[in-house]
Amino acid sequence: MDLSAEEVRRVCTTALLRAGVPDAYARLQVDLLLEAELRGRPSHGVLRLARIVERIRNQVTNPSTTGEHIWEGQALLAVDGQAGLGPVVACAALDAIEERARSTGIAIAAISNNNHLGMMAWYAERTASRGSTLLALSTSEALVHAWGGRRAMVGTNPIAIGVPAVPRPFVIDMATSLVSMGQIHDHARRDEAIPPSWALDRDGNPTSDPHAARDGAIAPFGEAKGYALGLAFEILVASLTASAIGRDVRGTLDATEICNKGDVFIVIHASASGAMARGIGAYLDAIRADIPADGFRSVAIPGDRSRSVREARLRDGVPVTDAVWTEIVALAEA
């Protein structure tokens, strides 16, 4: 079914309020879930709301905290997320390091004991729209097989980058896996086959069955190089946050485990960024104006497609499956 963005926002917010989430935090969490839906990322959208509520009920998520902040020097903020809602803890940390970076030039938040961040492009665009550059890293359960391996050993370990540009920031958001586990779950919910290049089953064989893929391992993007990047990001985050690593990471895919992955945000505030914003925008337009290769209608910049999808969904409605919406409505009416 197609629903207006405001209807999705209203019902999802009500569901979180009924679960005991403070109003401002509920609205922030829903903003992120809805933005994922608007941008065509349902794997990070409202289908996650029921698990968020269940985690609150199981007392492995604390809906009322922004985390504890300790400055370890002028530019490094250590954050104990206190099992808070991922976006709430993350935004509080970002606000703190954005302010600090205006005087120091750069500031880092190393976040432990925090829940799932959701779509990381949202944070990158938020910071870049305020005139600073963001590099964001996060880890996950071991869901990706090593290059040449058969078992899940490494996280999907996404990276997001936001850079100020005119008329809008340059933003990328990508997992270091070929796809996210959220996409696998989304295909499983829809009973849609996946390309066999996406994942291995529990025996280490390529599979087109998303249900079998959930018990197996996702492929790294970019073969050996993507595997190396994902591994490097995981080690970097763990070294800064003292969070769990590899197959010891828990809590982003279930409703009963404390989440023990790590997040790192690096904010850079440089005078050159403001001066270059218009030039970067012109450069991106020059790339878009390039002659498309055979089989391509146009040349795009990362984020172009999602912005186009967003405009269409604001106009025509947000597609949500009947099963997911029925579950959300029941939570809002509980």
TrEMBL record:
UniProt KW keywords: Oxidoreductase
Keyword match Oxidoreductase: yes
Gene3D superfamilies given in the database record: 1.10.1530.10, Hypothetical oxidoreductase yiak, domain 2, Hypothetical oxidoreductase yiak, domain 3
A molecular function GO annotation: oxidoreductase activity
Signal sequence annotation: none
Keyword Disulfide bond: no
InterPro entries hit by this protein: Mal/L-sulf/L-lact_DH-like_ah, Mal/L-sulf/L-lact_DH-like_NADP, Mal/L-sulfo/L-lacto_DH-like_sf, Malate/L-lactate_DH-like
Pfam families named in the record: Ldh_2
Protein family: Belongs to the LDH2/MDH2 oxidoreductase family.
Name recorded for this polypeptide: Malate/lactate/ureidoglycolate dehydrogenase, LDH2 family
Organism of origin: Bosea lathyri
